[in-house]
Amino acid sequence: MEFVEFSGRQAAQRPEALDLAQAAPWGLGWPPNPEDRVLADREWSWLAAWRPLAFDSEVFGLALGQVSTLLHRDPWPAPRFLDQGTAFLRRLADDARQAGLAGLFARVGEKDFLAAQALEAAGARLMDASVAWEAELGGREQAPAPPAGLVVRPARKSDAPALADLAAGAFCDLESYADRFALDPRLRPACGELYRRWMANSLGGGQADMVLTLAAGEKPVGFITLRRHRGQEPGWVVLNAVSPENRGHGLYNMLLAHGLAWLAGQGASHARVRTKFSQRAVIRAWSRLGARPLAGDFTFHLWLDEL
Fold first, then answer.
1. Is 0.70 surpassed by the pTM of this model?
2. What is the pLDDT along the chain (307 residues), one digit of tens a residue?
3. Cβ distance 237 to 257 under 8 Å?
4. What value, to the nearest 5°, has the Cα angle with vertex 38 and ends 34 and 44?
5. What is the largest CA-CA distance in the chain?
6. Start-end ranges of CATH 3.40.630.30 in the chain?
7. CATH of 135-294, one of 3.40.630.30, 3.40.50.720, 3.40.50.300, 3.40.1090.10
8. DSSP for 82-150, written as a single string
9. Nearest residue to 128 via CA among 69, 180, 67, 178
């Protein structure tokens, strides 16, 4: 198998790459970022774009990267196609390792079993299975009032430490959420730090446009972070959690209603969330809102220094 390499800018201008992107049955991520590194085989049956991740590398103390585009022409696993994909991904791993990376993250669509099996054959491990849901926001009733003793309000500066702890506890708990950064033994020690920074960035406006706090008196016991719509894009519920001692009382549904009301007030006609297949309570809540599933995906971690 012979290979060619490009920058993302160069690849986006190649007619062979565009033809592959249009033909790829389950492809994600086209066109690549201009600064991405792009690898393709000379037959233009496989193409991948990847780049280093500065934020993740800093948090975890490891040189990490992301496969932002993964395309292939053949739709389903067959021995010949699987062998091609495995050889292609092993070459991709070699390139990333030579560039100094220790690990790569890769996400594939829910039906892309050829890419998923090729990633596994190349040494990657499945770490996440998620689905995106979308709900219409028009014509909804007013969000219900919180129970006595609780209030939903915009986050305050003084909430930051407690909200950071809530985020770290909720998303790094293997029993309740099993985030991919907690499931991976090499990343688990810094999972909490990742979500503390994520919350700090949300409060600072970098990751969210609004953070609503569910508070008991002055104590935050839940939150929802929201990103307003841009143009034709929907609004997003990014992070949402309730403290363990307050779960099982309908507070997630109530907090979600307040978050969706805020997005609607900002002009969004639709809202989305991405959650794990295993988060049945979240899926039930969105289903009751009339939401529909859009697409699922699988995320893999490939540790290059272990190959």
1. yes
2. 999 999 999 999 999 999 999 999 998 899 999 999 999 999 999 999 999 999 999 999 999 999 999 999 999 999 999 999 999 999 999 999 999 999 999 999 999 999 999 999 999 999 999 999 999 999 888 999 999 999 999 999 999 999 999 999 999 999 888 899 999 999 999 999 999 999 999 999 999 999 999 999 999 999 999 999 999 899 999 999 999 999 989 999 999 999 999 999 999 999 999 999 999 999 999 999 999 999 999 999 999 999 9
3. no
4. 125
5. 67
6. 135-294
7. 3.40.630.30
8. HHHHHHHHHHHHHHHHHTT-SEEEEEEETT-HHHHHHHHHTT-EEEEEEEEEEEE-TTPPPPPPPPTTE
9. 180
Q: Which two tokens stand for residue 25?
A: 């049955």
Please name the amino acid found at residue 167: A
Could you tell me how many residues make up the chain?
307
Buried b (16+ CB within 10 A) or exposed e, 13-45: ebeebeebbeebebbbbbbbbeebbbbbbeebb
Assign a CATH topology to domain 3-123: Aminopeptidase (3.40.630)
31 prior amide bond cis, ω within 30: yes
Q: How far is Cα 223 from Cα 34, in angstroms, rounded to an integer?
A: 36
